Amino acid sequence: MDTMGKNVILEAIAREMQTGVLVLNGDGKALYANPFFLNSFPVEGGVELRAVGEIVKNPVLLKTVGDFMKNLGGSSEDIEINEGGRFFSVHLVPIKDRGDFKMLLFLQDITEEKKVETIKKDFVANVSHELRTPLASIKGYSETLLDGGMDDKEILKEFLRVIDRHATRMARLIDDLLTLSRLESHQMTIVSAPVDIGDLVLTTAKGFEKQARDKGITISSELPDKLFRVLGDRDRLEQVVVNLLDNAIKYTPSGGKVSVSAFISDGWVKVDIRDTGIGIPSDDIPRIFERFYRVDKARSRDLGGTGLGLAIVKHIIQVHNGRLQVESTPGKGSTFSFSIKSCP
Question: Per-residue pLDDT tens for 127-185?
Fold first, then answer.
């Protein structure tokens, strides 16, 4: 194969690569950039014979390139840069060809990997924080009892109640963590069968009547005369309604109302859980389905929330290829809705 043929092949390879390629001459000016690089670092009028400082602004990369140019090479080097809110892994390769110095820069976009890494770190930190508080309480109260607190029956009973409450909170958190882990790793078995949504809504809402009554909240169900079915996992869909109703009651003050309704439209069954509670600020709505995200952290913990309920809801609806929607006005209430395709 002649040189021209090899060049055509190399050009095709560079053009299709999902890694940015930039070639610099000995003066630090661009000789070539492939399409992936140009999309990542757009320069009006192209990059040819532009100084590298006109193309990439990152000071770490510019210093590394400058050192290579000053010394006319060295061994290959790998660095990470943050440019325009995105992260890149950069591999620098100096080349001496017949006395001419050139440098190849390969840039791989690792923004998503960095996001995942951050999420993992935050997750570990959040779990540690969520477990530390009840564990500290359990340890403190149990030590007090062992130091002689058991002699007073009233103190004993009260401390045991506190220990039981914190142990229950930890058990709930661990259960939610396991559920979420299985959903995210697709290890949870989803048993699809026709589910009567009307029956599911009525049964679930009935189970919350005492909790609502104890708090002075009215709970109601609104269903059409003709009930309808969806194809899904009844247990998991019931978990969605339970989580949303539980939240609605928790965040609705005494004297408020919670209603759950269902209807069919364009082949989709839509379930609305509406409350007259404290509402959610608009800036927080995009993040409420994140793990451990709470609008009011102290209030959520006082009410017994694990911070994982809405994340579980999101993943269950996703595995059912459904839709999830939130509308809320601070001080007036919220409506959480999910839609699933209906079945005959």
Answer: 777 778 788 888 888 888 888 767 777 888 888 888 888 888 888 888 888 888 888 77
For the sheet containing 86-97, what is the strand order? 30-33, 20-24, 100-109, 86-97, 77-83
- Which one, of 298, 218, 311, 202, lies nearest residue 256 by Cα? 218
Start-to-end Cα distance in the chain: 63
Listing DSSP states for 37-83 in one string gives HHHHS--TT--TT-BHHHH---HHHHHHHHHHHHHT--S-EEEEEEE
Residue 303: its pLDDT value, please? 57
């995105």: which residue's tokens?
A: 86
Q: Which of these, 272, 274, 249, 271, lies nearest to 196 by C-alpha position?
A: 271
Are the CB atoms for 166 and 202 separated by under 8 Å?
Answer: no
Q: How far apart are CA 132 and CA 134, in angstroms?
A: 6
Amino acid 14: pLDDT: 64
- Which domains can be identified in the chain, with CATH numbers? 3-109 (3.30.450.20), 111-188 (1.10.287.130), 191-344 (3.30.565.10)
Task: Tell me whether residue 89 is exposed, middle or buried, using C-beta atoms within 10 angstroms of its C-beta: 0 to 12, 13 to 18, 19 or more.
Answer: middle
Burial of 148 (0-12, 13-18, 19+ CB in 10 A): exposed
pLDDT for the residue 82: 86
Tokens of 149: 């607190």
Show the tokens assigned to 102.
């050139």
Distance CA 23, CA 7 (A): 15
CA 306, distance to chain mean position in Å, is 15
Instruction: Report pTM.
Output: 0.63
Alpha helices in 96-233 (DSSP H): 111-146, 153-184, 197-206, 209-214
| Residue 139 phi, psi (nearest 5) | -65, -45
CA distance 298 to 263: 36
Is 289 in contact with 183 (CB distance < 8 Å)? no
pLDDT surpassing 70 at residue 246: yes
Query: 100 phi and psi, to 5 degrees?
Result: -90, 135
